[in-house]
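Help: why these numbers?

___
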Amino acid sequence: MVKKLGIFIFALLLLSSFFTPVQAEDKVINIFSFHAEGCLYCAKEEAFFQELEKTDKNLKIYRFEIAYDKEGQAVAKKVEDLLGIKISTVPYVIIGRQSIIGFTEGITDKEILEAIEYNRTHVVRDIVGEMLGVAVPFTGDEDDPKETVIRLPFFGEVKAKSVSLPLLAVVIGTLDGFNPCAMWVLLLLISMLIHIKEKWKMWTLGLIFLFTSAVMYFFFMLSWLNITMLFGSVFILRLIIGAVAVGGGTINIRNGLKKDDGCEVVDSTQRKKLRQRIQEISDQPTFILAIVGIMGLAITVNLVELLCSAGLPIVFTQVLALNQVTYWEKIGYLLLYVSFFLLDDIVVFVIAMKTFELTGISTKYAKYSHLIGGAIMIILGILMVVKPGWLMFNFS
């Protein structure tokens, strides 16, 4: 009897061991680190990981070199296809379903620790681990990611993370569209077009000019975004862009404190040539030639205009490169920026064409445009160097 009771108790203890929940601190977390040889920030992150491995024995860090190692590149490609992401900036870390790009001491290290803690205390599928065969296939339901929710008028409850970059795109894009160079070129165009007798030609040429300008602006920003995504985690590039932003902002404020009007980049001789060119285009006997001419003019004028207003779009693309969003989301934010940049011009164009009341850009308009734009550029430039985490909306 005693022997049977002993066997029964032993069986109960053995069975209970299968149902004892695993403590959070005992849960093994897989970390997938993609790095490149010679990358300074990758080296800093690796030093952090080595210290972390000493204190946390339940971490498994899988390292993949993707600059020269073919196997690492192949794994990165599989992960990109699996998650629908682009691993174009290193270091790039994946923990559970969270991606962490770049490495800044005091910011990224905290994000990594928070991601580890979240994956330990929540049910999160290790989809990359499953693909690589280092995690047990997941069955069941995952915990919903915890996100901060705020209430906005007319929009109701929205996720805080989703409102920051769109709001920045709208504000900076709108402000950029009102820069004196853009407005001067637009008003000059309108002053030439209102002499065309056929209204449909007048509207068509004007809108083609605006949309061609927007397309060119978009591709300029896209090109710069690709550069910053490749080298955006390098401190020296951030330092250069920050210095350019502060310098450009200072020049804008200096110009705003002057009493000059119009656009300083385009001098009076260039303005005269532009007037003549627009007049020649509007006088073309064949409308197709006029369209080609107006598109060519838009490209030429915007090359000059970029010298006047490149500061804000360059700063915005750097902010995009710093934030952990997918490549296609970045494209979406660029389109949003350019849409509001274009919206300013369309509104002014429609109002002016309807009223024919053209007074040019006043000194007061140019002054405040320079002052506001300059102040924003200086603030963003300083944050880019001193507090890059704030540009990633991480204020901790």
About this structure: Residues 158-391 form one domain. The first strand starts at residue 29 and ends at 35. The chain has two domains: 20-132, 158-391.
